[in-house]
Each structure stands twice: as structure tokens, then as C-alpha cells.
Design a protein that fits this description.
- The structure is a single chain.
- It is globular and about 50 Å long.
- Helices cover 39% and strands 25% of the residues.
- It has a single domain, classed as 5'-nuclease (Rossmann fold).
- It contains 8 helices and 8 strands; from the N terminus they run βααβαβββαβαβαβαα.
- The strands form 2 sheets. It has a 6-stranded parallel sheet with strand order 3-2-1-6-7-8, with helices on both faces. It has a two-stranded antiparallel sheet with strand order 4-5.
- With 189 residues, it is of the alpha/beta class.
Length: 189
């Protein structure tokens, strides 16, 4: 990743997209480490995280993450997920945060030099192009190494830079407690 020390950057994380990409590569993200990585590279103005929440559920598995992020340096953007029944009678959940992310990128563009977009969604290609016309550099973080690749080719081509998520894994992956305990144990020789 190429950042300039005085460059103002903002992170825009498509939560569902990033989660799926990291899962396909076999790791969990440590969001504290992710924030530290980018804060040490440039002047981090804001880190946005976008996710939809199912409001009716008594317990939402994503709620602890949302709360933690909200208290630890991220600007949370959430909205209720829409539940519906499809033509075959199956219950489905729709949770698209593209519009919210796009509006925030356009509003932040005058205040930053570099946007880092954590998403491979090809729908963001025009957004990237529009922000670039305002003089803002755009880096897309996603993966080509999953099967199928999780980044749209046209989004990757439009971006000023593409960062393979798997290359960031050593710097941003969450170490499970068992891994930490094993790392502390002396190795038998």
C-alpha cells in the first residue's frame, strides 16, 4: 500500500462484503489491528463501517461487533434489514448498504486525499470514477484469491490501486486465544 505521511485518508468498509471475503480466505479480521495499520500509514480522518441489522431478532450475532466498533474508533452506519418472502415461499433478508456508503464517500471527498474502499462490489465502479474526478485517490481492498474472486474486474481496473486482502492478513487477522496460548508454549526440540 502506498500512502503519504501527511495524506488524509478515510476507510469505507462494506461490512458484509469484507466479512465474506475474509471468510473465503479463512481468517477473521481484528478491527483494532486494521485501524492501527491505517492510522500508522497516514492521517486517518474517519473509518466507516456499513452493515444492516435484523431488528426483530432477540439476539443478533453481529450486535457485539457493531457495539465494539462504535466504541473503538469506527463510525457505524446501520439500517434495518428488510425481510420478505420470495416467489417460492422462502423467507429472505435484503441488506444493501451501497447508497449509504456512496453518499458518505461523496460527502467526505472534499476532506480527504485518499479513499480506501473495502469492497469488491462492481456497483461501486462509477462511485470510484466520480471521486477520482474530484482529485481523490482510491484504493480498493478485496480478493482475487477466493473461488470465485470477490472483486469485480471493472472496479479493480478503475481504482488507483488494488490491495489483495490476503496480503493484509498477517497485519489484520485476529489471533484466536488458542493460537496465542500455543505461541507462548515453548517448542519441543
Amino acid at each position: 500500500m502506498k500512502f503519504y505521511p501527511q495524506e488524509r485518508i478515510a476507510l469505507f468498509i462494506d461490512g458484509a462484503n469484507l466479512y465474506a471475503a475474509a471468510r473465503s480466505l479463512g481468517f477473521d479480521i481484528d478491527y483494532k489491528r486494521l485501524l492501527e495499520l491505517f492510522s500508522s500509514s497516514a492521517r486517518l480522518v474517519r473509518a466507516f463501517y456499513y452493515t444492516a441489522l435484523i431488528e426483530d431478532q432477540e439476539y443478533s450475532p453481529i450486535r457485539p461487533l457493531v457495539d465494539w466498533l462504535d466504541y473503538n474508533g469506527y463510525t457505524m452506519v446501520t439500517k434495518p434489514a428488510k425481510e420478505y418472502t420470495d416467489a417460492t415461499g422462502r423467507r429472505k433478508v435484503k441488506s444493501n448498504m451501497d447508497i449509504e456508503l456512496a453518499i458518505d464517500v461523496m460527502e467526505m471527498a472534499p476532506h480527504v486525499d485518499h479513499v480506501v474502499l473495502f469492497s469488491g462490489d462492481g456497483d461501486f465502479r462509477r462511485l470510484v470514477e466520480a471521486v477520482q474526478r474530484k482529485g481523490v485517490r482510491v484504493t480498493v481492498v478485496s480478493t482475487l484469491r477466493s473461488s470465485p474472486p470477490m472483486v469485480a474486474d471493472d472496479l479493480r481496473r478503475q481504482a488507483d490501486a488494488f490491495v489483495e486482502l490476503q496480503d493484509l492478513a498477517p497485519s489484520i487477522m485476529r489471533h484466536h486465544r488458542e493460537d496465542r496460548a500455543a505461541a507462548r508454549e515453548p517448542q519441543a526440540t
